[in-house]
């Protein structure tokens, strides 16, 4: 009999590995395609940013328990690919805004008595998660624009802001679609 890993470790490994895998997918496939369509904004934001979907789903399912895995993975990837040489505080702002944007939005929803929890059977959960992805993207975008606003020309600000919000929202939608497809294939496999 194999010893079972603690739930927290399994959760951390799952969140980190899926975030990393989808980040690399965006980096290797989506960014190069986007370079051909919208090269100006592509260096700052993806039109479909799949890791935001991981943030949304992980935080929705695990609440504050998702923060550390998301923060660790985001910090490592940001340090490797995006760290701006100058002000470390601005880089940390970008990492924190990306890692905490969904949790902050969920806290605002809770404060406003908007219940998007799994136990609320009166709502359409996928729509609620897309809405959560959209609203949390505003916080993510604000932090990232604060961090890198001076590194890009002001004529790009609106285009990058729009790309961030669209990319995070479409990334959430795409992750939900992938998850739904995975569950459907799993059910079909069990039925056979």
If you had to describe this structure to a student in words, what would you say it looks like?
This protein is 76% helix and 0% strand. With 192 residues, it is an all-alpha fold. The protein has one domain (7-191). Helix 3 (50-62) crosses helix 6 (125-148) and helix 4 (67-81) packs antiparallel against helix 5. The longest helix has 35 residues, at 157-191. The protein is globular and about 55 Å long. The model has no long low-confidence stretch (mean pLDDT 86).
Topology (elements, then pairings):
Elements lengths: L6 H31 L1 H4 L7 H13 L4 H15 L6 H24 L13 H24 L8 H35 L1
Helix pairs in contact: 1-3, 1-4, 3-5, 3-6, 3-7, 4-5, 5-6, 6-7
Q: How do you describe this structure in short?
A:
By secondary structure, this protein is mostly helical.
């Amino acid at each position: 009999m194999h010893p079972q890993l603690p739930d927290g470790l399994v959760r951390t490994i799952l969140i980190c590995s899926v975030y990393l895998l989808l980040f690399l997918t965006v980096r290797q496939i989506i960014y190069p395609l986007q370079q051909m369509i919208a090269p100006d904004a592509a260096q700052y934001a993806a039109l479909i940013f799949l890791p935001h979907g991981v943030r949304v789903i992980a935080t929705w399912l695990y609440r504050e328990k998702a923060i550390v895995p998301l923060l660790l993975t985001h910090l490592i990837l940001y340090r490797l690919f995006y760290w701006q040489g100058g002000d470390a505080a601005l880089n940390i702002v970008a990492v924190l805004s990306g890692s905490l944007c969904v949790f902050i939005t969920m806290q605002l929803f809770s404060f406003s008595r908007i219940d998007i929890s799994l136990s609320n059977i009166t709502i359409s959960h996928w729509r609620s998660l897309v809405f959560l992805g959209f609203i949390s993207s505003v916080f993510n975008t604000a932090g990232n624009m604060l961090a890198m606003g001076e590194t890009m020309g002001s004529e790009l600000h609106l285009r990058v802001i729009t790309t961030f919000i669209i990319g995070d929202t479409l990334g959430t939608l795409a992750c939900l679609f992938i998850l739904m497809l995975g569950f459907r294939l799993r059910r079909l496999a069990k039925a056979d």
